[in-house]
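FAQ: What does a ligand-bound record look like?

Like this one, built around iron/sulfur cluster:
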Amino acid sequence: MKLPKIRELTEAIKAVIKGPYTSKFPKEPHEPHPNFRGQPKFDEENCVGCLACEEVCPVEAIAHQDVVGDNGNAKRTIIHYTDVCIFCGQCEAACIADHEGIKLSNDWELSFFDRKEESYETIDKELQLCEICGSPIACKDHLKWISEKIGELAYSNPTLYLSRLKSLGIVDENIVSAMKDKGRSDRVKILCARCRRETTLTTKE
Ligand code: SF4
Ligand code: SF4
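The answer part, i.e. the structure of the complex:
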């Protein structure tokens, strides 16, 4: 008969005293190590909707959808697909909101029955539309973030300073722009890049 080695005997004695090394999940909940890298989670308050995380994700686990309603309301839905995420943390590393818009959590239990319905999480951000053509420019929080970052330089761009004044409540959100003929008088408005270029290059008053 082959005799057990000293190391194996020591492990066996330790297991008798300390109990088994494996956890009793699912009978008992499993507590992951504090440094465990689990599913990333969005923080709706901190996220500004810039989509940098979508750009860097190596497995396309983040996507977005911009929806413009008939009533002029527009929102960006950012989607995180938990079933394809590899928890690499690139989204958190690239997040422009001081890495607070999306963060790895220690949530590891991601099993589900209905993949179509349960394998994703979403957050919504309000979109700013161009005051001439109505196409989405960026999320309102993103424009606010840019104007805060560049400070007084924002006053060289009507889209940025008007967004900032609106967010401060100095300009009424409900003021509807008149004159939308892409003339020079339309330049001091919140505009997309195309309308900004056209109103700048036009010879119309
Ligand atoms: S952790 Fe990695 S794979 Fe998952 S969403 Fe972030 S960047 Fe994509
Ligand atoms: S702020 Fe961060 S979490 Fe939000 S869209 Fe940008 S990179 Fe992603």
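Follow-up question: can I read anything off the structure? Yes, for example: The beta strands are 40-42, 62-68, 74-81, 102-104, 120-129, 136-139.
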